[in-house]
Amino acid sequence: MDYDRPLFFRVMQYADAADRDVVDMVSGNPDWAPPEALREGLREFADREPEAFQYSASEGDRPLRAAIADRHGVDTESVFVTNGTAEANHVATACALDAYPGDEVLLTDPVYPYYAGRNDLLKAETRYVDADADGHLDPDRVAEAIGDDTAVVVVNSPNNPTGAVYGRETKRALVDLCEDHDACLVSDEVYDAFDHSGRFTSALAFDSPNRVVTNGFSKSMAITGLRVGYCVVPAHLQDAVRTRHMLTTIAASRPAQAAVLRALRETPDAYYEANRQLVEDRIETFTAALDEAGADYTAPEGSFYVLVRFDGFPGTLENVERLIDEAGVAGMPGEAFGSSRTEWLRFALVTPRVDEAAARLTDYLG
Ligand SMILES: Cc1ncc(COP(=O)(O)O)c(C=O)c1O
């Protein structure tokens, strides 16, 4: 997949330049507020001594690592704080490629495009495994694709762009397959706070040297700009991850880590529940309008994206630009997510105007 320059930017620029009002449903930037304790943590940090503005420990501030470890019931040493889940994915994939035999990385189709671009950057061979029509991943298909050349299997649940949540059995099967084939599962769980199905299971539920879990606070705390993520790494990969992370970025932002730690400690569950409910209400509003228009869509079990198919209107970049100009709604072309959803468009429910967007879409295409 050719992915040198993310299409997100191109579509967002096109929408910004449009000569009309456009409802922006392109990016994964939440429009809801971060936790109050996060803001307080940033304010408090601003008045700290000069020493506090210097590098944190490369692996991450110890109290934050301990708090993350505590949440997941893992050892603090296994937690590395990174510049977003993006860096965690990068470091995990690169280190697993080095550590395991073979130079192939299995991805799903549809795929989160940065995984595909990263494989090219790392000069890995990419093999795609098709997800089911509803976005679920059938471990039997992974079993057919995985082989001696496979070093890494990257999965994402709750999923961007399908919204699928892989259940416990699937995660168990993926860990088993990686163990049986001397490969590493990289399980990206950045949308775990947005599980609408109640079926989300972390790969951390299965103790194994053959899996890395990546995650972060961009989505759960609505802070994509702060760049705090982490990976949970088995003992045999920890030196490699430590070195690669240090040589790439030295450390994650210290004020951001301090603010996230405060938010982790002080934010009530009600904050996460309210945002999940907000997304669920938007899903209901958006999909009800799509139902009326007779459009096909995948109702997300998790995350905050909806894939939609309108008859005779494939998910090309050209059609996305037409929708911006003629309907006033900006989404992402399905062709950005691999080859299996080229008929589809992806809309991110990160605007209070989802009802208006649905009305505009159905007026134009319904
Ligand atoms: C599947 C997936 N992984 C990772 C990321 C990046 O997360 P972060 O902002 O924590 O780097 C995103 C962002 O949209 C995503 O959709």
From TrEMBL:
Pfam families the UniProt entry points to: Aminotran_1_2
PROSITE patterns: AA_TRANSFER_CLASS_1
First-level EC class: transferase
InterPro entries: Aminotransferase_I/II_large (IPR004839), AspAT/PAT-like (IPR050596), NHTrfase_class1_PyrdxlP-BS (IPR004838), PyrdxlP-dep_Trfase (IPR015424), PyrdxlP-dep_Trfase_major (IPR015421)
Keywords: Aminotransferase, Pyridoxal phosphate, Transferase
Cofactor: pyridoxal 5'-phosphate
Family as reported in the entry's similarity comment: Belongs to the class-I pyridoxal-phosphate-dependent aminotransferase family.
Molecular function terms, GO-annotated: pyridoxal phosphate binding; transaminase activity
Domain of life: Archaea
Quaternary structure note: Homodimer.
Protein name: Aminotransferase
GO biological process: amino acid metabolic process
Location of the Aminotransferase class I/classII large domain: 21-357
EC identifiers of the protein: 2.6.1.-
Organism in which the protein naturally occurs: Salinirubellus salinus
